[in-house]
Amino acid sequence: MPELPEVEALALDLEGRLKDRAIVKAYVVQISALKTFDPPVSALEGTLVESVTRHGKFLDIETSGLHLVLHLARGGWVRWRDELPSIPPRPNQKSGLAVRVILDDESGFDVTEMGTKKRLAMYVVRRPLDVPGIASLGPDPLDDAFTIDVLQGILEKAGRAQIKGVLRSQGTIAGIGNAYSDELLHAAKMSPFKPANSLSEAELQTLYSAIRDVLGDAVERSRGLAMSELKGEKKTNLAVHGRTGEKCPVCGDTVREVSFADSSLQYCPTCQTGGKPLADRRMSRLLK
Predict the structure, then answer these.
(1) Which of 97, 112, 135 lies at the terminal end of a domain, its last residue?
(2) Model pTM score
(3) What residue stretches are annotated with the Formamidopyrimidine-DNA glycosylase catalytic domain (predicted)?
């Protein structure tokens, strides 16, 4: 799933390709992806792209007073095409094509979604805040307004909720998903199931620094990369997420996993849980 660093880089790449260009046609191939009806998708035709920005994990293409907003969910991605046919595309399960946008020189981009669970979302709105998911976003963790005091307030309000869940809740903090919550908790040497309101002053500072450093470094590494390179860059630089059974790059212990119904997390016992493995919640209670 694209998270804050990848969406930031996608926005930067797309702005360089789209700014001051005219949209000739926008096709919604996977009709379940379209979440709005007013303005219609046809209202994008003939408009000029003014900017491409990010709100949490939402891409926002501003075009002559309208906003084409995309949420790529778990299996979505944006693919640039130097040349696109003018004929309307047909649904193609193999390609996963969901949305196609054609520019004034026949270049453009496809939005694809792989997998059986269709969660990709497209909105055509007059204001970004007309998208419910954007209106309910928490603060951006890389914004100057996201101070350690803001983080402390969020954690205190969350009570004894598990800290990983708090960090990846978009209504609490925008842009952090499953992968980067694993990564920054590993960097902070903190159990993913530590109660949010139990952090000492030193632990709060460590977590805050990890959030800013892990996300900031990922953004800097991704900056300037083409969209086709972003997935590989992310995977290459992950320390624990998606690396079950491999050695922790910090201590050499084996990276372990806890599985849930539709997701999983990875962590290092030596770095994060005092050497104690966390039990799989499907079979027993988590070790404290």
Answers:
(1) 135
(2) 0.90
(3) 2-93
